[in-house]
Amino acid sequence: MIRKFSLLLGLAALGLTGSVGAQQTDGGPTLNSQMTGDLVVHDPVITREGDTYYVFSTVGRYVGIKTSKDLKHWTDAGAVFAEIPAWAKQAVPGTEGIWAPDISYVNGEYRLYYSVSTFGSNRSAIGLATSKTLDPKAKGYGWKDQGLVVMSTHDDDFNAIDPNFVQDDQGRQWLTLGSFWSGIKLFPLDPKTGKVAPGTEPYSIARRPAPAGGPAPIEAPFIIPHGGWFYLIASYDYCCKGVNSTYYTVVSRSKKITGPYKGKDGSDMMQGGGTILLRADLEEKQRFRGPGHAGAFTDKDGTTYLAYHAYDKTAEGRPTLRIAPIVWGADGWPVAQY
């Protein structure tokens, strides 16, 4: 992601058709309207262990943690790292933070993928940390850094940030990633290490075509397997400008994890297509702006929740945690209840 990282550090010390996502209009309270507590996050991902929900995000040195028992009241619970790993400082000179985590439970342990980069550069790297549990009071708790997973340099046409782990129906493991440059990539992983094998070539699964030298804002991929399809979520346009952010979120799907991914109207994600899933708040409200960097989690009862950030106009544009339950339509497409 091309970010105004100094903003995040301070907080921490449309051209598409066929809108799928929509505000809840049945008159009942949304989950978002009931949320309280420590809600300042950026690039959130969500999961659950036992009776506790965990959100990991860019805000907080380094990789902030929020917890909740009911998805409504959230409490700050510290951070994953006390400092940036030495290998990351060497790989990406000048890096000042850890961005855009992803959390998954794989083979008896939690995998937390994370990004290190600098503003506007694709000299970037994705690392991996693991822990047997998320509960600091439980036996086996403790994040162990496993080092480099994949890196991009100025010689590459992609940017190795914004990771998301996904496992297909054949048990194969993948990592999707990418921000700006030539778009979203998908790498096969070595299931034993959770890392990209040397020499592995990525699949290109989404991009925003632009004139030579022009910006191509697409980032924050997340793949949800559901009902025999793979649903690719991505964020378009610009984050990190407070209430002036133009971020919004699109969804597409494919029968194969490697694509092609198409929107509800058939538009191709390799041509900047897709279908809107999350958009800015209604004009008459205009409170939460730039909703994006969404990560999904399916709870024990089968409900899928979409965690994302949006900039709160009533709170000086702070990036704020938002959580939207997803309803799957009869046509198989997700509708975010936000």
Report on the architecture of this protein.
- The strands form five sheets. Strands 1-5-4-3-2 form a five-stranded mixed β-sheet, with no helix packed on it.
- With 338 residues, it is mainly beta.
- 4% of the residues lie in helices and 41% in strands.
- Strand 10 and strand 11 (173-177) form a beta hairpin.
- Mean pLDDT is 90; it is low at 1-25.
- It is built from two helices and 21 strands.
Q: Which key features would you list for this structure?
A:
single chain; 338 residues; mainly beta; five-stranded mixed beta sheet; four-stranded antiparallel beta sheet; 4% helix; globular
H and E string: HEEEEEHEEEEEEEEEEEEEEEE
Q: How many strand elements? A: 21
> Percent range for helical residues?
under 10%
Biggest sheet record = 5 strands, mixed
Separation of termini? Answer: 24 Å
**Total helical segments:** 2
Tell me the fraction of residues in β-strands, as a range: 35-45%
Query: Which structural class do the helices and strands define?
Result: mainly beta
Q: Judging from the principal axes of the Cα atoms, what is the shape?
A: globular
Summarize the structure.
With 338 residues, this protein is mainly beta. Helices cover 4% and strands 41% of the residues.
Secondary-structure map:
Elements lengths: L4 H8 L23 E2 L7 E5 L2 E6 L6 E5 L4 E7 L6 H6 L7 E8 L2 E8 L7 E8 L12 E9 L11 E4 L5 E5 L6 E5 L14 E4 L11 E9 L2 E8 L11 E7 L20 E4 L9 E11 L5 E9 L5 E11 L5 E3 L2
Parallel strand pairs: 1-5
Antiparallel strand pairs: 2-3, 3-4, 4-5, 6-7, 7-8, 8-9, 10-11, 11-12, 12-13, 14-15, 15-16, 16-17, 18-19, 19-20, 20-21
